[in-house]
């Protein structure tokens, strides 16, 4: 049964349909020509197949058709305010921005405008995922601002107001949920990760990811902040570029493995009795104790109980390299550096698609650009040579498998496969799309030089994950770390919340569109007959 989700309409001082209509002075031409290796415009085909129907985990959701008598047709329900619809919306709006001179792309913006005018951005801290959805208003503002294709002063003002609500939420998150800010937080971390934003730390701490920084959070938090700064939406809040950079300098030294050239999924500072962390830590082999870039020893419950005589430590990291986590982090770095460059170009220091010299010589830019180049190199080295794609667990091939079993109490360890069932490591679509998008976009912006790896990545995605009906397959539904999610290789393969989805789940849909539009920028397909 499909879960029904109702979204309350907000009172907006505009007529929605009229407010999302075309600016009469806009160019309605096709605006695209040339030829590429792949001749089909996959971004358009996938958007038109799924704009009004895709999955958020196991719930069929949709963005509305504003000109329809039934804007959201059953059994789908309207997308709610959540980071997954936000990722999908960003992918659509990124694609629309590139194709906005084509009349056939108008419906995409109208649908999201109609939806966006009935949403309200989160203005509270605590959950970075929820704040990330604010990015939809950045793209909508570009269409509604003076000179935009759908220019509308009231809509533009509303979208800017929502961006500022998101900035307010980030400011509260910084004030209340930065590591070493709360009085009951672990103080022994001192300068190591101080100022890093916890991924989720609101409400009952026992149910939160207290003291944890996730790779995912780099995309949800600091990348959003960088884009809000570039959009001029943070004035008056205690937020700045130092906060953006700190999220990476706090997490990178503890997540980066110099030998494997990959990032672990999570770093963790809190193992007190009443937190999720104690239960995870007692798994015995989940967290490695770290100091700077050095792995000192594996975290074990005996160490927690006091056997730390040799090297005391208080910062830990998860055991595995999850593909989508590294994908979020590398795309976050690209988006942050793009926003940094945009701030410079707005001040007359260069063009959008090149790195101004004044920017490339700044200390902050050098740090983040260095992280980006190292991570890109590590990920390209893990690209599957046969398909051009990436695996769910980056450090293994298909030989890594996990089998359902029971623990010493007789309880099932995992519930994603039947008892005795086996799941082996697999090529995963969302990670492949995020990494491909980052490589192609980073190359376009002059930050990277991986055009061939990006090209092979997208062509592999189309070949191995895209069906003839434009569904996207082989996407991991979810993954995280908590009391019953211990972050082992087996967890990422057969954990209860990591099933493989073959029905176009939102995280891969948004990531696919970001990769597709970057491929089409680099290799423009010829206009199809119906586009002429």
**SS field, number of helical segments:** 19
Widest beta sheet: strand line-up:
4-7-10-8-9
What would you call the shape? globular
* Average pLDDT taken over every residue: 82
Number of strands: 14
**How far apart, in Å, are the first and last alpha carbons?**
42 Å
Range of strand content? 5-15%
Given as residue ranges, the uncertain stretches (5+ residues, pLDDT < 50) are: 1-17, 24-36, 182-190, 273-287, 291-312, 347-352
**What is the helix content?**
40-55%
Report the C-alpha radius of gyration, rounded.
Answer: 23 Å
> Structural class of the secondary elements?
alpha+beta
Task: Please tell me about this protein's structure.
The protein is α+β, with helices and mostly antiparallel strands and 532 residues long. 41% of the residues lie in helices and 8% in strands. It has 19 helices and 14 strands. It has helices at 16-19, 42-50, 83-99, 106-116, 128-132, 135-144, 153-176, 215-220, 222-230, 241-255, 276-281, 301-304, 323-345, 357-360, 363-381, 429-444, 451-465, 489-494, 506-522, and strands at residues 54-56, 59-62, 77-78, 212-214, 256-257, 262-263, 266-268, 288-291, 294-298, 315-317, 401-403, 422-424, 475-476, 500-501. Strands 4-7-10-8-9 form a five-stranded antiparallel sheet. It has a three-stranded mixed sheet with strand order 1-2-3. It has a two-stranded antiparallel ribbon with strand order 5-6. The chain is globular, with a radius of gyration of 23 Å. The two termini are 42 Å apart.
């Amino acid at each position: 049964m499909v879960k029904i989700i109702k979204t309350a309409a907000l009172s907006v001082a505009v007529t929605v349909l009229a407010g999302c209509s075309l600016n009469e002075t806009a160019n309605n031409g096709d605006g695209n020509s040339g030829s590429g290796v792949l001749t089909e415009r996959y971004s358009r085909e996938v958007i038109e197949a799924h704009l009004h129907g895709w999955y958020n985990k196991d719930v069929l959701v949709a963005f509305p058709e504003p000109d329809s008598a039934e804007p959201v047709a059953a059994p789908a329900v309207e997308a709610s305010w959540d980071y997954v619809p936000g990722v999908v919306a960003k992918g659509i709006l990124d694609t629309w921005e590139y194709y906005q001179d084509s009349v056939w792309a108008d419906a995409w913006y109208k649908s999201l405008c109609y939806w966006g005018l009935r949403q309200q951005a989160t203005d509270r801290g605590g959950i970075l995922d929820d704040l990330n959805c604010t990015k939809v208003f950045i793209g909508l503002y570009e269409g509604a601002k003076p000179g935009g294709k759908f220019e509308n002063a009231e809509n533009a003002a509303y979208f800017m107001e929502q961006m500022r609500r998101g900035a307010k939420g980030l400011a509260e998150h910084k004030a209340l949920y930065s590591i070493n800010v709360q009085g009951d937080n672990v103080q022994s971390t001192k300068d190591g990760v101080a100022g890093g934003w916890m991924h989720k730390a609101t409400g009952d701490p026992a149910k939160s990811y207290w003291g944890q920084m996730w790779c995912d959070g780099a995309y949800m938090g600091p990348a959003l902040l960088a884009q809000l700064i570039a959009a001029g939406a943070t004035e008056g809040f205690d937020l700045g570029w130092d906060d953006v950079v700190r999220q990476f300098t706090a997490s990178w030294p503890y997540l980066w493995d110099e030998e494997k050239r990959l990032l672990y999924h999570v770093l963790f500072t809190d193992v007190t009795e009443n937190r999720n962390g104690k239960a995870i830590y007692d798994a015995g082999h989940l967290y490695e104790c770290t100091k700077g870039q050095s792995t000192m020893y594996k975290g074990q419950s005996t160490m927690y109980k006091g056997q730390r005589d040799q090297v005391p430590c208080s910062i830990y990291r998860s055991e595995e390299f999850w593909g989508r986590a590294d994908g979020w982090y590398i795309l976050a770095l690209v988006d942050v550096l793009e926003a940094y460059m945009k701030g410079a170009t707005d001040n007359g220091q260069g063009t959008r698609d090149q790195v101004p010299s004044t920017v490339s010589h700044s200390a902050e830019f050098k740090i983040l650009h260095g992280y980006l180049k190292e991570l890109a190199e590590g990920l390209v080295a893990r690209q599957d040579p046969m398909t051009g794609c990436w695996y769910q667990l980056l450090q293994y091939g298909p030989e890594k498998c996990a089998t359902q079993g029971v623990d010493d109490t007789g309880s099932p360890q995992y519930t994603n496969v039947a008892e005795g069932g086996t799941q082996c490591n697999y090529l995963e679509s969302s990670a492949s799309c995020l990494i491909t998008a980052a490589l192609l976009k980073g190359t376009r912006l002059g930050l990277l030089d991986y055009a061939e790896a990006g090209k092979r990545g997208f062509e592999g995605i189309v070949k191995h994950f895209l069906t003839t009906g434009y569904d996207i397959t082989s996407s991991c539904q979810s993954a995280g770390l908590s009391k019953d999610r211990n972050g082992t290789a087996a967890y990422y393969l057969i954990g209860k919340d990591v099933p493989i989805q073959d029905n176009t789940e939102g995280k891969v849909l948004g990531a696919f569109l970001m990769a597709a539009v970057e491929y089409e920028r680099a290799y423009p397909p010829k206009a199809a007959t119906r586009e002429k």
